[in-house]
Amino acid sequence: MYLSRVEIDLNNRQKIKELTHLGAYHNWVEQSFPDEIAEHTRLRHLWRIDRLAGKSYLLVLSQEAPDLELLGAYGVENTAMTKPYDPFLDRIKEGEIMQFRLTANPVRAISQPGRKQPRMVPHITVEQQRKWLTDRAEGLGFEIVKTVSGDSMDSEGTENFDIVSRDWPILRRGHRTLRLSRVTYEGLLRVNDLDQFKQTLMNGVGREKAFGMGLMTVIPRG
User: Fold this and answer.
1) At 43, is the pLDDT very low, low, confident or very high (cuts 50, 70, 90)?
2) In angstroms, rounded to a whole number, what is the distance separating the alpha carbons of residues 151 and 143?
3) Are the beta carbons of 129 and 146 closer than 8 angstroms?
């Protein structure tokens, strides 16, 4: 697998005028893999938009390396880069504490009388969105690290993560315009199930993965 990044050229309005909704970003990512298009294959590409130190980046996780020229189509010149991801995955150890960042679409299913498919409803409050992640952590192969107050030996501790961004970006599907709940989490986790955790990193978390949700990245905590 490969992890790639490019700085989005937000100062060039002519270059990014098409990037008005999530579907446009999805198309940018897909077009960066011309061999897959030519072979009519549809491999999963996880991606998200990171905003760091006043700059915006497109981050992409893929099975094959993208075409860097195409990945840089809407980017600042010479900022598109890629590197193999498998060596990093191979170094992760069970029990390791890691700093994580995850952009996700926290929703819940509501049954609909007379229909097989449930209706997906976004979690709205910070409390609901935090619980959405903590409820899934074990099944994803990790636990959120807890901070215990020094003056309370009986305390169960506070889960060590924050919601650093919440918004409702637009997605256009044909004549329909939708808004998706997008939440970015950051914090500390402990790897409990190594195989499952690697699957989480490779396959993503939650829904709307084609539209910039689900990509979790981690950095070992020294």
Assistant:
1) confident
2) 24
3) no
| Distance from chain centroid for Cα 51 | 13
Alpha-carbon dihedral 222, 103, 203, 219, rounded to 10 degrees:
-10
Q: How many Å apart are CA 216 and CA 62, to the nearest integer?
A: 13
Report yes or no: 190 and 141 within 8 Å, Cβ to Cβ.
no
pLDDT at 149 over 70: no
Give Cα 173 distance to the centre of its chain. Answer: 21
Length of the chain: 222
**How sure is the predictor about 193, in pLDDT bands with cuts at 50, 70 and 90?**
very high
Number of other CB atoms surrounding residue 191 within 10 Å: 20
DSSP string for the chain: -EEEEEEB-TT-HHHHTT-SSHHHHHHHHHHT-HHHHHTT-----EEEEEEETTEEEEEEEESS---HHHHTTTB-TT--EEEESHHHHHH--TT-EEEEEEEE--EEEE--TT-SSPEEEE--SHHHHHHHHHHHHGGGTEEE-EE--TT-TT---EE-EEEEEEE--EEEETTEEEE--EEEEEEEEEES-HHHHHHHHHH-SSS-GGGT---EEEEE--
- Residue 170's nearest CA partner among 196, 125, 208 is 208
